[in-house]
Amino acid sequence: MTTGHKTTTVFLTILCGLVLTIFGLTEQWPTWAWPPLAVILVATPGVAFKIAGRRRGSVPVAFEEHHTAAPIERTEHHVSRVALPSQWPDYDFLISATVRWYALDASRPGRVLNPAGLAVESVLDRARVVTEQREPGRVSLVQHELSGALSSLLPDSTGQLHAMAEDVRLTLHEHDQERLDSLAGVRKDQAVWEHQRKYEQSKRKYLGEDVLKDTGSAVVWWLAKNDEKVERTVEDLGLLARLTSAANDTDVPERLRDLIPQPREVEDGQVLADRQAAPFGRAPTAADHLADALTALNLEDADTQRRLLAKQFADAIRDQDQHETADDLVRRFDPPATFTPDGGEPPDSPGGANRPTSGL
């Protein structure tokens, strides 16, 4: 019976005695009844304690030894920035932690004189098993993993002590962290460049193999671009025919040549270069057709859109292994710059200061 049980028994005995006393005074019990009542109230706690002791039995020996055993002596040692290998060569983790241990049997022969070294070795061996399988770029995640793996008291390889670690901190060398950040930036830039390159290739393929595959496809595409304005599309049939022929490096079909508009006359001579591009007696080239088509679109030589559109056509036909025609377009619409003796370009030249950047 515990101390709480004993206190409760005495309190209930006193309470019952008070109740019986009040009841006896109220009922005017005879005088001879009071002595037996007092004996019963005094004997009740003793009887209850004796019965409880017999029911409990003797205390187990193991339980008594457990409570009388000497307390376990635990000690600790702090380690700082100890290198551990990672999954990548030459990239080491740096671990800092507080190592705790206790000896299993300090009285047996061959007692360890430096238990701190044995405990630290045990903890580092357990940590190395984890870090050598992890990438250095996940240092914060590996730190939490180590905190869990080293939180249990486990015996060392000699079986003489149990060891664990707490306050685990994991870092990298500063230069290694800078290199990892730089590599991550390069990988991200490369991924962006790959997406841009694939987008440009897809756009060229779309223009060369779908939109400008033939005049019919170009007409359908142009009709969709102009919100189903049929009259405007009909007016641009000749232009679409020339664009399709330039993209495929072929001549305009005979049935569509009547739809090709003639270069318009302008007073300032903007189309003079286009007229000079096809001398008498020579069949028009793809560059000639493209020049007439761009002129029909009111795209003058100084217009940036004229150079950009020509670049798209050059890239599209270059993907179809028509490199000579693509080079001809580059020479026609973006001729080499003429440099002055001082290393600059004449302001009035096609590649001068006022020339827009086309990227050809």
- What order do the helices and strands follow? HHHEEHHEEHHHHHHHH
**What is the averaged pLDDT score?**
75
Q: Level of helix content?
A: 40-55%
End-to-end distance: 100 Å
The counted number of beta strands is 4
Structural class: alpha+beta
Outline the structure in words:
- The chain crosses the membrane at residues 7-26, 32-52.
- Keywords: Membrane, Transmembrane, Transmembrane helix.
- Residues 319-360 are annotated as: Disordered.
- Residues 319-334 have a biased composition (Basic and acidic residues).
- By secondary structure, the chain is of the alpha+beta class.
- The protein has three domains: 3-57; 74-105 and 112-177, 2-Layer Sandwich (Tetrahydropterin Synthase, Chain A), CATH 3.30.479; 208-333, no CATH class.
- 54% of the residues lie in helices and 11% in strands.
- The chain contains 13 helices and four strands.
- The protein has helices spanning 3-27, 34-56, 61-68, 115-131, 139-149, 174-211, 215-225, 230-235, 237-248, 272-276, 286-296, 304-318, 323-333, and strands spanning 74-85, 92-103, 154-155, 161-172.
- It has a four-stranded antiparallel sheet with strand order 1-2-4-3.
- The longest helix is centred in the middle third of the chain and has 38 residues, at 174-211.
- Mean pLDDT is 75; it is low at 265-281 and 337-360.
Using brief descriptors, characterize the structure shown.
alpha+beta, 4-stranded antiparallel sheet, disordered C terminus, 4 strands, membrane, 360 residues
